[in-house]
Amino acid sequence: MPIPTLQVPGPRALEFIQRDTTFISPSYPRDVPFVMDHGRGSEVWDVDGNRFIDFAAGIAVCSTGHSHPEVVEAIQKQAAQFIHISSDYYHRSWIELGEKLDEIAPFKEDALCFMTNSGAESVEAAIKLARYTTGRQRFIGFFGGFHGRTMGALAFTASKPLYRYRFYPTMPGVTHVPFPNPYRPILAPTTPDIGETVVDYIENEVFGHVMPAEDCAAILLEPIQGEGGYIIPSDGFFPALRRLCDRHGILLIADEVQSGIGRTGKWWAIQHWGVEPDMVACAKGIASGMPLGALIARKSLMTWPSGAHGNTYGGNPISCAAALVTLRLIEQGFMANAAELGDYTLERLRAIMASHPSIGDVRGKGLMLGIEFVRDRTTKEPAHLLRDQIVHAAFSHGLLLLGCSTNVIRIAPPLNISRQLLEEALELLDFSITEAERREDW
To answer: What is the pTM (predicted TM-score) of this model?
Structure first.
């Protein structure tokens, strides 16, 4: 396949980027100078007419692809009826979305939902509800986790020190423990499964020396760590963690903001381990790019009174209309596509790995896949610079990639990507890795 080399950024993109630097906060991370003009499915075009395959989907948000016609139609229809009414009143699509989320919730008990505008807001709601319903004040989070940048969520986020720099003190009461990373285990194993070792550490070290178990309201974590490196925990972890929570009356909160809504080939990533959480925080892929999130909790837990928690834009009618269509499309085929093409892509990545010594590990479930780059497979020294060079090389050849952790590239395209586009993107990725490896400065 001929590999394109684009002249990027083009003149129009440069003009917009200059205007952006004049008026927009510099806190937004921009890995490559891509200025979007329009998108269709898994393809996007910049303002200079350059075409790219999108392997990032707006950070796993555009689950049905860019501007899916049925989602666009639902947005337009709702906008013509009314755009906003506030959470002081009722409307049909909000109620219907609650019914659908109850149907797909990853626990048998009936669910109640609190609608939000983002993943961080869903996490904040989970923190408040956990404190309210248990009467306890403390929590456990995990190193490598990302849960948002607002002050409550930030207390759990532990993927990069930058996120906390000059923002202390965060919300008190959160104790962090190692996440069971099979490729880079932190703890010396005390059991055959590193996940069970982590749970033993919580039981014996955290509860034994730092935090009384009866003070712990909840354990909050991503079933698959996102910003931390697309880390898949060992299989024994979640069953052992659920037993620990049950033993001490602790709530288990799954942050499925990035891993949920069909991305891993199931509605929720935690379902791969047959474990039921008590609450789920979700957002990103739920509405194909419209701002929407939700806290989904067991009905027996969401007992707070009127006014205890609320928001102005929660349950926005346009976002809810988009979400209902999004969930239908995912259920009717896109989730199955994610499972099938995810398995295929993982095998293709393993084949690519065989010809690239810089790849230390490939992993994932569904279309939530990570490639970890190392300077040496034996020492596993992270190849930070190489990862960045691959992202930039891929951009110059028409492929949008996003990194995570310091040395991982995530693959998270729209769930309806075609096999043909997937193959084209993997060819571009393979070429870009080769190109970056040939440099001597990584």
So the answer is: 0.97
pLDDT in tens, 136-171: 999 999 999 999 999 999 999 999 999 999 999 999
Q: Are 140 and 244 in contact (CB under 8 A)?
A: no
Tell me phi and psi for residue 106, to 5 degrees. Answer: -85, 35
Nearest residue to 147 (alpha-carbon basis) of 251, 258, 242, 25: 258
**Cα–Cα distance measured from residue 168 to residue 179, given in angstroms and rounded to the nearest whole number:** 23
Task: Give the other-Cβ count within 10 Å of 161's Cβ.
Answer: 7
Using only C-alpha atoms, what is the Rg of the chain? 22
Q: Is 320 helix (H, G, I), strand (E, B) or coil?
A: helix
Distance between CA atoms of 281 and 293, rounded to whole angstroms?
Answer: 8
Quick one: CA dihedral 220, 224, 226, 231, positive or negative?
Answer: positive
Residue 165 CA to residue 390 CA, distance in Å, equals 28
pLDDT digits (tens, 9 = 90+) for 293-324: 999 999 999 999 999 999 999 999 999 999 99
Query: Measured between alpha carbons, how far is 409 from 421 in angstroms, rounded to an integer?
Result: 18
**Contact in structure between 330 and 64 (CB atoms under 8 Å):** yes
Q: Which residues contact 325 (CB under 8 A, 6 or more apart)?
A: 64, 68, 70, 71, 73, 74, 288
Ordered domains of the chain (ranges, CATH): 11-67+333-437 (3.90.1150.10), 69-329 (3.40.640.10)
